[in-house]
């Protein structure tokens, strides 16, 4: 068998059997809904009579999944199919078992880490009228051949992982799902505790139906959020490494109570950059205009944009000083290092891109944490994505500032979403959870809105700003990404293209400007941004933009210029 596999005649893949296969008589009815869920369910069904798309705005842990299960059951009873979209593979792991208990063999799971054979099986099953009736999957599931869809659920619809950019086809699965549903005459339900501004805007302006679910499931109260002012804490020497004394005390108590802790730091690796103590040299990627991240575990410097890696330099390549480097900033690896010294007996694990390269490692960390084999889980935004753990009573946010200071018009919305979602992981059936948020900006409006769980306040503020500066949802954006190996050619091409666009679109054109990382994989990059009125015809706009591009880039000297067009960039 191995010989045939080596010759690529056979392909080996693992198939999970047993654990997920319930026989028909073991299947359970959907759980009974509480009064708030039942009311929301009725409202959703009522809204669906008027609007094909409904947004369910439900606080974290409000039991949205149970609602979804009831809605899916009703669609199946009508002989139709349902698609349940989730933003991450990790979520299929947690949800599959729950859904299998109700839907048994009718449920199919679909994601990119399956082999071709497994995916073919799902395709064939969907085409067969005795095959799958419910699919849970990631964004690419919208391309599956459904016979007759009755419902598409897009859970945590604000997640950026729903957008595919590279490689093409470029699409946003939320928007594509709405189109797919309308082709089948089906309904679309968008769900989140922190909807995208655009989706909430569509709901309050009447394009979508809006249903709210403000009560947490089983009366779990929302967590108490305590702010630590980092400036003050450092000044008063109440810090050990990146941990405030208060956070350490609370962690101590939590461990004594045999409860679990999540620590959030939105950066992987040990330190985002190194600096030479004698000449201030900072090691950079040889292909990109970005500093190399230090990974202590591999003792290497790695570029997070192209993957270029070199070993830790024993002396400064610039001035020759031996053991010259100090670390700056901190990532999840450093947090792990520090926490092991503070709590040497605690069982600690880390969940980020580096520890979850395979589907198995993902599942193992989640299962270990669920089964209380881990006391403290450190993670990047990966741990915020809708995972539910019922023994977590403390969440520590090490530093909220890099989220707040990120230079992008969506950064405040994103910071609110991430901080609210990670906070939502705290809290149990019988006990209020606690969140400790460390920041240099305790007075920042977003921090206040996160504490007050004030989504509407955040929404109103962001809308005011975006209206003023003409950003979505008040305009549509088209981003032109221009790239070339030669800096001078790029400068000329991007300037000429901007000029020709400006002749037509005037002040709607911004740029050319440097992106955050102005060179990636030996390509220099410029951005040109168009802000187009919502009322403008997409076809006309597209044609004019195309014409400008074609006439500008057809010049012989610009033949090798690369251009990507991103409509509604995220
Ligand atoms: Zn040096
Ligand atoms: Zn690089």
What's the story with the biggest beta sheet?
Answer: 7 strands, parallel
* Rough outline: globular
Low-confidence stretches: 16-20
Number of helices: 17
- Spatially, the strands of the biggest sheet line up as 3-4-2-5-8-1-9
Percent helix, as a range, is 25-40%
CATH class call of the largest domain? Alpha Beta
Mean pLDDT: 90
Number of strands: 27
What is the level-2 CATH architecture name of the largest domain?
A: 3-Layer(aba) Sandwich
* Backbone CA Rg: 25 Å
Could you tell me which ligands this complex binds, including any ions or cofactors? zinc ion
Portion of residues in beta strands equals: 15-25%
SS-based structural class? Answer: alpha/beta
Look at the structure and name the CATH superfamily of the largest domain.
P-loop containing nucleotide triphosphate hydrolases
CATH fold node name of the largest domain: Rossmann fold
End-to-end C-alpha gap: 46 Å
The structural domain count equals: 4
In short:
With 570 residues, the chain is of the alpha/beta class. The chain contains 17 helices and 27 strands.
Descriptive overview:
It is a single chain. By secondary structure, the protein is an alpha/beta fold. It folds into four domains: 2-218, Rossmann fold (3-Layer(aba) Sandwich), CATH 3.40.50.300; 220-267 and 335-466, Rossmann fold (3-Layer(aba) Sandwich), CATH 3.40.50; 271-329, no CATH class; 475-567, Ribosomal protein S10 (Alpha-Beta Plaits). It has 17 helices and 27 strands. The chain has a seven-stranded parallel beta sheet with strand order 3-4-2-5-8-1-9, sandwiched between helices. A six-stranded parallel beta sheet has the order 10-22-21-13-20-19, sandwiched between helices. Helix 13 packs parallel to helix 14. The protein is globular and about 75 Å long. The relative contact order is 0.10. The model is unreliable at 16-20 (pLDDT under 50). It binds zinc ion (2 copies). One zinc ion binds at residues 285, 287-288, 303, 305-306, 308.
């Amino acid at each position: 068998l191995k010989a045939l596999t080596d010759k690529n005649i056979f392909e080996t893949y693992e198939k999970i059997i047993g654990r997920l296969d319930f026989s028909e008589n073991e299947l359970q009815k959907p759980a009974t809904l509480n009064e708030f869920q039942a009311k929301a369910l009725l409202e959703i069904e009522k809204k669906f009579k008027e609007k094909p798309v409904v947004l369910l705005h439900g606080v974290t842990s409000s039991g949205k999944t149970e609602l979804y299960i009831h809605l899916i059951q009703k669609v199946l009873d009508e002989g139709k199919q349902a698609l349940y979209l989730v933003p991450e593979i990790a979520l299929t792991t947690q949800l599959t078992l729950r859904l299998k208990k109700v839907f048994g063999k009718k449920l199919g799971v679909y994601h990119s880490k399956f082999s071709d054979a497994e995916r073919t099986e799902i395709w064939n099953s969907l085409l067969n009228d005795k095959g799958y009736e419910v699919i849970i999957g990631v964004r690419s599931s919208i391309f599956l051949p459904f016979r007759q869809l009755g419902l598409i659920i897009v859970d945590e619809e604000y997640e950026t992982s729903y957008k595919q950019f590279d490689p093409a086809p470029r699409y946003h699965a939320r928007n594509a799902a709405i189109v797919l549903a309308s082709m089948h005459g089906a309904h679309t339900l968008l769900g989140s505790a922190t909807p995208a501004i655009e989706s909430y805007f569509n709901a309050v302006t009447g394009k979508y139906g809006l249903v709210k679910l403000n009560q947490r499931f089983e009366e779990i109260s929302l967590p108490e959020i305590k702010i630590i002012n980092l400036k003050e804490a450092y000044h008063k020497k109440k810090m050990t490494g990146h941990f405030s004394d208060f956070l350490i005390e609370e962690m101590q108590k939590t461990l004594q109570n045999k409860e679990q802790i999540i620590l959030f730091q939105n950066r992987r690796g040990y330190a985002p950059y190194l600096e030479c103590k004698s000449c201030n040299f900072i090691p950079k990627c040889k292909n990109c205009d970005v500093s190399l991240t230090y990974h202590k575990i591999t003792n290497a410097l790695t570029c997070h944009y192209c993957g270029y890696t070199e070993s830790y330099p024993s002396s400064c390549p610039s001035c020759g000083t031996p053991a010259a480097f100090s670390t700056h900033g901190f990532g999840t690896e450093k947090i792990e290092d520090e926490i092991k010294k503070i709590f040497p007996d605690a069982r600690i694990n880390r969940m980020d891109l580096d520890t979850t390269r395979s589907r198995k490692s993902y599942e193992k960390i989640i299962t270990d944490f669920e089964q209380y084999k881990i006391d403290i889980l450190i993670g990047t935004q990966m741990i915020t994505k809708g995972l539910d753990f019922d023994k977590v009573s403390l969440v520590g946010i090490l530093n909220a500032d890099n989220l707040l200071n990120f230079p992008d018009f969506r950064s405040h919305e994103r910071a609110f979403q991430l901080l609210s979602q990670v906070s939502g992981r705290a809290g149990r059936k019988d006990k209020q959870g606690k969140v400790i948020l460390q920041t240099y900006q305790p007075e920042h409006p977003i921090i206040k809105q996160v504490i007050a769980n004030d989504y509407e306040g955040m929404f109103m503020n962001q809308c005011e700003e975006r209206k003023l500066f003409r950003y979505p949802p008040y305009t549509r954006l088209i981003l032109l990404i221009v790239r070339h190996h030669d800096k001078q050619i790029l400068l000329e091409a991007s300037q000429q293209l901007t000029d020709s666009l400006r002749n037509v679109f005037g002040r709607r054109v911004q740029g050319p400007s440097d992106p955050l990382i102005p060179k990636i994989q030996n390509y220099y990059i410029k951005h040109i941004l168009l802000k187009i009125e919502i009322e403008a015809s997409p076809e006309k706009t597209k044609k004019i933009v195309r014409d400008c591009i074609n006439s500008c880039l057809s010049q012989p000297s610009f033949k090798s210029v690369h251009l990507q067009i991103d409509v509604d960039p995220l």
